[in-house]
Design brief:
eight-stranded mixed beta sheet; globular; 6 helices; alpha+beta; binds inosinic acid; Maf protein
Length: 199
């Protein structure tokens, strides 16, 4: 299928890339991973997602998706939020650091995951789409699936953390799946396909 339109996923995070490959399968796009390595200089998810998408667009000339996401813990005033990737050098240390900050805080530790997707395309203003998943942080690591903070994020009503869910179950609840749904429902991707075909 030589003329499949291409869409850049502006990320070097293998967990995110795997999820985008699953969530966008069936859209007809050939997905191209591209790590822009831009500094996350923004104050919000929308700004950071847009920085990533626009950097990828300017380097590739192709429509590009940027993802900025994080976990927000209510008792910590929404921390770490946009700083979720910067709590420590490895994910193990980041998860440990978050749990250390919660030590002594009465449970339940209500939390949410947030994902903002920005779509940057030639000659168009950048648009963004948001998804969230409300749940609870738990003190013990549970499960090996997923990535990031998945093993300590319990999804209400399931008795499972994201770390205990296969991808097809995580997508029923996940912030990233919700953001992708908003993107698809907006028609923005379809109009890129139509534009490429000259319709
Ligand atoms: P950033 O979007 O590159 O700033 O990184 C977001 C960080 O939030 C990731 O490195 C993860 O630690 C965390 N995160 C975002 N989405 C998820 C998810 O779906 N599961 C677990 N952790 C996530």
């Amino acid at each position: 299928m030589a003329d499949r339109p291409r869409l850049v996923i502006a990320s070097g995070n293998t967990g995110k890339l795997r999820e985008y490959r699953e969530l966008l399968a069936g859209t007809g796009f050939e997905l191209v991973a591209f790590d822009t390595d831009v500094e996350e200089a923004g104050e919000t998810y929308v700004e950071n997602a847009s920085l990533k998408a626009e950097a990828a667009l300017s380097k590739s000339g192709l429509p590009s998706l940027g993802d900025d996401s994080g976990i927000e813990v209510e008792a910590l005033g929404g921390f770490p939020g946009i700083r979720s990737a910067r709590l420590g050098p490895t994910q193990k240390e980041r998860t440990g650091e978050l749990l250390r900050r919660l030590a002594g805080v009465p449970r339940p530790w209500r939390a949410r995951f947030v994902c903002v997707i920005a779509l940057a395309a030639p000659d168009q203003p950048t648009r963004s789409f948001e998804g969230e998943c409300v749940g609870e942080v738990v003190p013990e690591w549970r499960g090996e699936a997923g990535f990031g903070y998945d093993p300590i994020f319990l999804v209400p009503g399931t008795g499972k953390t994201f770390g205990e869910m296969p991808p097809e179950e995580k997508r029923l609840y996940s912030h990233r799946a919700a953001a992708v749904r908003a993107l698809l429902e907006s028609g923005a991707l379809q109009s890129l396909v139509d534009a490429k075909r000259g319709r």
